[in-house]
Amino acid sequence: MQSAVYKDVDNAGNYDSKAASHAEEMARPGWGEEASRVYESTKERLLTTIGGTKSLLSDIQNFNSSAWTMHYPGLDAASVEQRSSGSNSLHRTVSIDDATAQGVSHAVAANPQEMQVLRLDLKLGASSAHPSALVNSLEKSSIATLLDSRLTKSSQHLDALSTRIKDTSSKVLVTGDLNSGKSTFVNAILRRNVMPSNQLPTTTIFCEVHPVEEHPQKIEQVHLIKSVRDAYSPTDESTFKPYSIDDLEALCEENETNPNPPLLKIYLNDPRAAQNSLLSNGTVSISLIDAPGLNLDTLSTTALFARQEEIDVVVFVLSAENRLTLSAKEFLVQASHEKACVFCVVNGWDRISERNKEKCKKGVLDQLKSISNETWVDREELVHFVDSTNVEADQDADNASRFARLEDSLRNFVLFNRQKSKLAPAARFLTHLLSDVELLSKANVKVADEELEMARNELTRVKPILEMMREKRESLQDELERIENEAVETLGKYTKTEIETALNEIGNGRLATDKVSMPIYEGILSIYPYARAVKHALLQSLDLSVNDIENHVREATGQNVKLVQGVGNDALPEGVDRVKRVFVKEAMFKSRSKANTSTVGMKLSEKPHNLNISPREIFDTTQLLIFKKVGGDKVEEESDEGSFLGALSLAVGAITMVGGKTMGMRGFIEGAVRISNLWGSDRVRQWAAPAVGVLVVGAATYYVFELPRMIPKTIGTSIKKSLESSAEPALSVDAASDSYAEVHQLRVERETRKVLRLASWDVKEKFRATLETHAVECQRAEQGEAKAQRAVEWFDSVCTKVDGLRKLGGLGMTIPTETI
Ligand SMILES: Nc1nc2c(ncn2[C@@H]2O[C@H](COP(=O)(O)OP(=O)(O)OP(=O)(O)O)[C@@H](O)[C@H]2O)c(=O)[nH]1
């Protein structure tokens, strides 16, 4: 048969007062044993559920710190507003304590969208931001930390609940307005004047009366514990200070003004028979707590509230003569929220005249009805009008019987309430906590699902790009090398060809470019400056040709740089910045080292020593002995007829040398030898001296006209010869093994390679960096995917565990999915 006792617990601690009245239920025969049996089995179930929930919380904490930063579901704005502006000022936020307190009440209807136990401690001052805004503004990691501390607190609270469930004794808190007769009532229950009672406020500290059987030595004694919050064990003398029962009054007096009042544990021998004793009657062991009177002193009020968690029954003592004070009302409101029913003792009933008794009774009950309807419904059992000063039959038989009935009701009420005071808070707390865990898990599954989708979308985007780039990496490298090599080779060859062409022109006595003009021949007497000017012009034309080559190479290299960048940019995925380096063509061929410049035969015309003219360059004996007819590029030798002319040129050469400033000893001797040789020849001897004279004059005339044409060729040939030969470079082309053309070819190749390599490096670096970024993004997305996947599975398993724990603990309430 299902009784109201079962219903209390099975319904997750939501006490259903309408199911049956206490009186009705408790009057049923054998209900006590049945209640004890149910109590024991429910207790075991709840203890196992607490163990399972604790390990689940610990798993969540570990997961939160090591694998997944917990997402906290947003607060429901409407309900928060409603709550923060509600009339019940005591309910500021739902805390662990509040949730515990709700274990036996139906005062606060839990909004399934809201966290009850795991709600974060965000202060809701009038000026503070909205809590949902606060939650949203917090860093994810800060929320996870706050949540972690909330989980720790919840776990600790489960420990406290577990201890409380295991504790076989029940605690009865006796409280009420100042001087309402609390101590007198406790004394009446004990049938001993133990607690000091007086007209003046006397009780300022909590006095907890235990049966002497609970004392380790079974002796009457007072244990003074420094603070209500301090740990205490009756077997550990370091946790208390022992006093005699006779010291009690003095101890109370001493601590009257103590801002941190101690707690007194009083071990008393109940002289009454077991069946009459309330302290220890075999079925239930009760501790009576005489509390300080309720007043406006926040400290003691707070202390009182703080202690309510461990008490099973609240006995509220009120004076029949006085109306309830504000603090008493406030306390009753709070206590009825927490305990649903409050046991009320209307004291000083003897002081009310007979004719006022009904009126007084009605007044008290009306007040109670407005504060605690549950108490009013069971008023027959829960509200007692007595005189605590005369409880023995021989004093006042009528009052004694009323008091005896009070004691019976109280004993049964304690027994009855043990279910609610010990098990229901645990059931209620577990219900809320598991709902919160489920809400939290479902919210995290949702977030993890979103992250999973995001990670997968990211992978769908990044992975193909990464693979494409990895595939392209080698071909890009090859392509860049190909462009570089081709450009270097082409421009190198071009340079060589161009310089060779220029040298050929110069070798034929012509300028390599029309940007320069030949000097004007001003007569035989200025032959030397003329030759020098010719050499300058030829070298300058060569220099300008080199300039033209460089300009061409610059342009071509620029095109190749664009090609390189184009290839590189084509290999980059969309959305990535392109290579932006601009090729400054003017910077090409600007060697920083001066020494370098001189080694590559640059600006030959600007180096004075290159303009030195040797006699051979004006009067080249080789040229004269083997007369060469210049006809384009073709040179024909005319050795037969040329011998005479050769002789003639020798003579003219001698004259010109004399006329010029170039005649040296060597030239003179050479000339003389040739003249004497001529004279020795038979053919020549046939010619007479006059002929020689005519010829000399003619030849001289011829040379005067021919010299301006001969000198450029002689000098050009000399320049060409010098620049083509690397063995004895007459000009400043100080290359060890290369000709002038090759030197420039190498130089162009080197410069071109340098520029293109830099451009390639840029492109490759950009490609490498982009590839790396995508690889990192891909790796991050893969990790995110794995993490989110794991979180989805893990939180799903938490929900399954929550269901299992609910079944185990006989708990109800599943949070609908759509509320997240
Ligand atoms: N006539 C009569 N006097 C009572 C009754 N109960 C208490 N008194 C007297 O009321 C006075 C105050 O009683 P206490 O028991 O000290 O009251 P209290 O509520 O414990 O006082 P504080 O601890 O100081 O708040 C004492 O003089 C008691 O004798 C009662 O039922 N009838």
Question: Total number of β-strand segments?
Answer: 11
- Any idea what the radius of gyration is? 58 Å
CATH topology of the domain at 169-417: Rossmann fold
Low-confidence stretches: 1-20, 75-112, 594-599, 623-669, 814-820
Instruction: Tell me the strand order in the biggest sheet.
Output: 4-3-5-2-6-1-7-8-9
Number of helices: 24
Name the beta content range: 5-15%
Query: For the terminal residues, how far apart are their CA atoms?
Result: 39 Å
Report the helical percentage. Answer: 55-70%
Mean pLDDT over the full residue set: 77
CATH hierarchy, class of the domain at 169-417: Alpha Beta
CATH second-level architecture of the domain at 169-417? 3-Layer(aba) Sandwich
The backbone outline, from C-alpha atoms, is rod-shaped
Q: Compounds present?
A: guanosine-5'-triphosphate
Structural class category: alpha/beta
CATH homologous superfamily name of the domain at 169-417? Answer: P-loop containing nucleotide triphosphate hydrolases
Please summarize the sheet with the most strands. 9 strands, mixed
Domain Dynamin-type G: 166-443
Membrane topology: Multi-pass membrane protein
Catalytic activity: GTP + H2O = GDP + phosphate + H(+)
Main location: mitochondrion
